[in-house]
Structure formats: C-alpha cells, structure tokens
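Ticket 4471: requesting a sanity check on a complex prediction with heme C. Repro inputs:
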Amino acid sequence: MATQNWFSRIREGAAASVNGAGSVLAWIGRAVARLVRRVIDFLWGIPQWTVGHAFKVLLLLVLAAAVLVAGALYFVTYYPSTQVADNAPATNIVYLDQGWGPTASSKYRQQYYYTPQGTSVASLRYSWFIHLQQVRTSDLFVDPGHMRAFGFLVDNTKTEMNPDQLPVGFTKHYDPVKREDLLDITCAACHTGELHYTGKDGQRVAIRIDGGAAMHAFTAMKLGHFGPTLLAAMARTYLNPWRWHKFARAVLGDEHYESGNGTLRLEFGKVLWALLRQGYFDRAHKLYPVEEGFGRTDAVGRISNTVFGGEVDEANYRVANAPVSFPAVWDIWKFDWVQYTASVAQPLARNLGESLGVGAAVPLHDLYGRPLPPKEWFQGATLIENLAWIEENLQRLQPPKWPEEILGKIDQQKATAGKELYAKHCKGCHEPCEATAEERAVQMPLKKPDEPLWHIKMLPVDDIGTDPQAALNFVNTRISLAKTGITDEDAREWLREIYTERLNRQIAYRKAHPSNTPPRYTESEMLKALDGIDVNSLSIGAGLNIIGIPLRRQFYKQFEYIKDVEQRRRLLMEYDGFGALDTPQVLLVYKARPLAGVWATAPYLHNGSVPTLYDMLSPADERPKKFFISRMEFDPEKVGLVGQPPASKGFWFDTSIAGNRNIGHEFRAGYGGWTPGAPPSHGLIGPELTKDQRWALIEYLKVHVDEKVAACTAYGSPEY
Ligand code: HEC
Ligand code: HEC
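Returned structure tokens:
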C-alpha cells in the first residue's frame, strides 16, 4: 500500500512540473542573468577590498561549497531509490505442498526460510536493518512492498521465527564478538521461487516454489537493486541529523539513547564505510562486468573474490563475468555431484563454501592483516550445526507439482505423446541413474538402502554447446593460498587423509564383494594428485576444498569428548552428509539435471538465457535474442517468463554478450545422431522438433517425475 502511495505522489509531482515548465524556464533565465550581473560587479570591486571584505567572501565561498556538497550528497543518496522497478505485488500467495505442508507457517517451511546459516554482510546488525527508513518516505526499508520491489519474497504474516516480516531467507544470528544480532542471509533467500500469474478471472496469484529459483539480484551493485538502494538509505540516515536521531532512538530505545548513540554512530559508520568501499572496489576494478539482472549471480566468481580476494590476498581478485541462475535445490541430496559444473560431492563442503562466500564469520587473518593459524579460524559452532540441519530439511522437499486448479488442466493425450518424445530425445542425458552398490559404499556410505544416490550425467561443454564462460572460469581461474600460511605439505597431508579414506572404502568393499573390474581409484592416481598440489596456483574448487578442511576439523574438535572412536566417526560423517568425502573435481562440463519440477524454474540454462521451455526446444536462432525481465510473471503456455515488458524498469537480458549466450542444447535440422563414442557436437543434440512435438514435450514436462530410476550401465564420467 505504502509503495503505491509514493509512486502516485511522484507521478502527480512530475505531472505538475510538466504543466509549469514554461514559467519555470523563464524564471531560470532571469535568475541566471541576475547572477552574471552580480559576478561582474563583484570582480570589478576586488581591488578596493579590505580584510573584512575578504573574510566575508571566504565565508561565502565556504558556505557555497557546503551547500554544493550537501546538494550532491542529497542527490547521490536520493537518486538510487528512484531506480527501483515499479511493482505490482502479488499478495495472494499459494503454497504448494512440496513436503513442507500447505501454509506459510508450516514448521519445516519456517525452518528452511529462517534458520540462520551464520553469514553476515559486513556485520550489518539486524536491529539496524529493521529500523532503517526508505530514502523517499518515512516508511521502513523492510516494508514488505519495498522488499518485494527488489524481487524478494515476503510472506503475508509475521511468525515466531520471522517476527519482523522480513523476506524469505532474511534472518539473524547472535554474534558473540559484536554481542549483537547480525542480519543473516540464508539458503532460502536464493533458493525459493515464486510464479506470479493473473488468471482469467483477473485474480493475481503468487505461487510459492520452495527450493525454486529466486528472482532478485541480491549481489548486484547496479542501481535499482537491493544493494545500492540499501547503501543510499544507510548513507542518508548517517548524514541527516534528524533521520539519525529517529533511527538511533528506534534502535537503542529512549532509555539507552544517550549512552549508546556515540557507539552506534561509530559502528554504523564502519559498516557503511566497509560496504561503500567494497562497492567502489568492485566497480573500480570492473570485477563483475556482465550485469546479473534478475535471478542471477556469479556464485563461484563472487565466492572466490570474497574468500580468496577479500580474506586472503588482494592479488586473488579475478573478473567474474559469468552470472548463473539460482538453481532449484529439490532432490539435490540424491545427486552424486552438484553445482552447474558438477564440481562438489560433499554437501557440507558445498554449503561451507557458499556460506564463506556470503560472508560467514570466519576470519582468516588478524586485524593487522597477518594470517591467522588455521586452528584459530573457527569461531562459532552454529554454522555447521545449522548447515547440517538445513540439509536434512531439504531431504523432505519434493519438486513442485503443476497446480491444475490455478494454471490449467493438463492435456493428458498431449502429455502421453510428450512422454514418448522425452524417452527418445531427453532421457539419455537427463534421466539420473542409480549408483551401484560399490559407488554407494565409497561415495556415501551412510545412505540407507531406500535413500537414492543418483548418478548425474555431465556433458563436455563443447558437446552441449551452451555458453562456456562459467565452466571456463571455473577451470581456468587460479588463486594463491600462500598468504594464509598454508604450505603445499599441509595441503598434501590433509588431502592424503581424504584420498586414503576413499581408497580404504573401496578396498573394504571389494574384500567383501570380490570383483574382476579394475578399481575406480588407485594409489598411483592419488599420489599423482597430491604431487600436483601447488598452493600458489589452485583452482577455485581446490582452494575451497583446502580451506574447508581445517574449518571442519576445528568444528569437529568439540566432539572429542565422545570417547568411542567409531561412534564419533559416524557422527562426523553424518555432518559431512552421508559420509561423503570432499574430493572436488574440476572439469569443463555442465551437468544435465533431472527435469522434475523444471516447469517452475525459468529462465533456463545455467546462465538463465532462455526464458521459456518452448524456446528451449526451439532452434537457437528462434530463441529471443533480447528479453525483458522484471518479475516472476509466469506464462503457463510456453512455460516460463512472459515475453512482453510488463514494467517500466527492469532488465534487458541481452544474449549477444559473452556469458549471456543462449546457444547450444539445440534440436534443429542437420542433426546426425550419436552413439557413445561419437557424441553430439557443438550443441546440436537432436533433430528439429515440430511445433506439435514441442507442445507435447512441454505438456509432459509439467508432470514429469524422476522417481524410479534405472541402474547405471557404465561407471565413470563424463559420459552419456
Ligand atoms: C546468495 C545466494 C545463495 C545462497 C544464500 C545460497 N545459495 Fe546455493 N547456490 C546459489 C547459486 C547461484 C548456485 C549455483 C552455483 C553454480 O553452480 O555455479 C547455488 C548452488 C547450490 C546447489 C547446487 C545445485 C545444483 O543444481 O547443482 C545447492 C545444493 C545449493 N546451492 C544449496 C544451498 C544451501 C543448502 C544453502 C544454504 C546453506 C545455499 N545454497 C545458499 C546461490 C545461493
Ligand atoms: C546430449 C545431452 C542432452 C540431451 C539429449 C538433452 N539435454 Fe537438456 N540439458 C543437457 C545439459 C548438459 C543441460 C545443462 C546445460 C546448461 O545449463 O548450460 C541441459 C539443460 C536443460 C534444461 C534447462 C534446465 C535448467 O535448469 O535450466 C532443460 C529445460 C532441458 N535441458 C530440457 C531438455 C529436454 C526437454 C530434452 C529433450 C527434448 C533435453 N533437454 C535433451 C543435456 C541434454
């Protein structure tokens, strides 16, 4: 409501000024003429000046400069708020039951949305965030309408876990050093989606997709997004004494205002400065040249810059020019490899890397910039505890089911035809297969027989032919850990333990189940891998892997009280995620994710460059070259984002920019077929589909599930 008010006020203001434009111009003309006359008189008079004169002029000049600076600051802090996209919020929210219950307040949903993961952005305090005002009104920054305008999802009610009605994924954790609650951005902020749909009856509905793709640009520093608008509001509050007074009273309460105001100002200033400096640094070094728009971030590049550039060594900053879509996270606990480039196998390692990237409180150096010994890295225990908990909750999450009552009935006949087409053209890559007993024993030994371990297929980037930038960056970027004080020998010793464990598991399995096939892992391969370690030149994956080991060890120290070694071992394996080992891989591939629920995750491909399923199934030159994204407006026919600009501000997704390309994964004329050993080349992966075939496949994808998967035929990857 509040949002609408200020939009209409601005609009009225603008209209009034257009009407009066003629007389305003005349007024400005007269004023300029007067000013010129004054300046000439003034210059003429200078030779006759006394000291008093000069002083007066100096004072005037200082005053004028102050007014100019104040005006500039006013403008700089005002302007960003004018760039936020208009917003017609959908407040009629429907929660699909994906295993977490049917209402906003269902327990598991609440826990996923608001369990903190121990991260903070520059130590921004929770209490500051909830009391900050918007720049243009006295409404709070966290007003649901305002937060929705950035693309965040806000439930309609306050709950015990979310007492301030913040967006999904915005929560807090207590920081024992600062002795305050910090704002904590958790998994749900990036891994929850919503589809906005206006039905034939004119009713606008927001269909919440738990574990789906977010559509904000949380990390973008482009005007109109969350980051710059927040900074402007903070700066305004800091600079404007009246605002500050009100803010400080709200944060501290009347009782503590006098005693706390000075400290509050100091701390607030520090955080503001840190954020401004980071924003400036990113821009000055052009670290993120490809605009994220809505629904994307260069996760790997940003994590690398935050951890290896910000924490370890400025020389590690690298340009990150391959933003990726926020992926869906249902079923991921069944995958053998996650991340677009299939680079991480252990759930804990993945989450730890991510939380370090978003800003977990793990200082790697002291106040003077000296490296801290790894045993000092770990501060609080909440982090891993909560990560493990969130991971467990995700195991209950199911892919969303197409809600026929809102989005329309499934045409069963079409869907059946689509199923056949899927089996023929898609299944070979997208259908996961069940890992063998040996793979289970080696990779995730704690999985129970009824808990699936899916082998996810990986396609060499050259074969699938989609935009290669994200994969290239992951493979080619090299960073140095030298400044952490970690040596090659340290890293080798730590990794040897992990690789040896993997070998031992394999040996144990084969002892119990003799086999003629050559073993997957060998000692010589291990030694070669260890030999190759150079902490001065590591891939991002290897760097995160090595940093993660002492972090985990430090955390696991608290369990040393458990004297039974086997019992302790098992507990730690559970924290790792089914006993998975952190043995990252660095390959030039994209994984073909299983397609259950894919209907709810537009835009498509790892870089979000294809707005609908229909476009996915069309030849690349029929896909939109440029399309507009402002919100989660859903098109239930082509299944994905609606095609027309629905708002005045938003993001033009330009697929001609490297990193944004919508090429590859093509069904088009000229396809020559493939067999194992003769893979599809350069993204031509199937024959052109007729329009009817495309519609049939889309109908099927609305109901596709990946439940009963077959056993894998061959071991190893990449392969089809
Ligand atoms: C700031 C946004 C953000 C937050 C917060 C975040 N993620 Fe992610 N997550 C991403 C992005 C972006 C990717 C894709 C990265 C890639 O593969 O390049 C990703 C990838 C993943 C994947 C792999 C998915 C796949 O298909 O391979 C999983 C699993 C995952 N995240 C789980 C989590 C969990 C659990 C948390 C909380 C502990 C979390 N994420 C927090 C943005 C986020
Ligand atoms: C040769 C292997 C292969 C075949 C065949 C194939 N895909 Fe894919 N598919 C992939 C890979 C790999 C990706 C990931 C590419 C990327 O993100 O750059 C992908 C991505 C997708 C996506 C985007 C997923 C997302 O989360 O954005 C959709 C949708 C999709 N495929 C549908 C299909 C359909 C439908 C068919 C059959 C008509 C099909 N695919 C056939 C390998 C394949």
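Notes from triage: The pocket of heme C (ligand 2) is lined by residues 340, 425-426, 428-430, 459, 464, 466, 590, 592-593, 595, 598, 601, 604-606, 613, 616-617, 665, 680, 685-686, 697 (CB under 6 Å). Leaving this open until the requester confirms.
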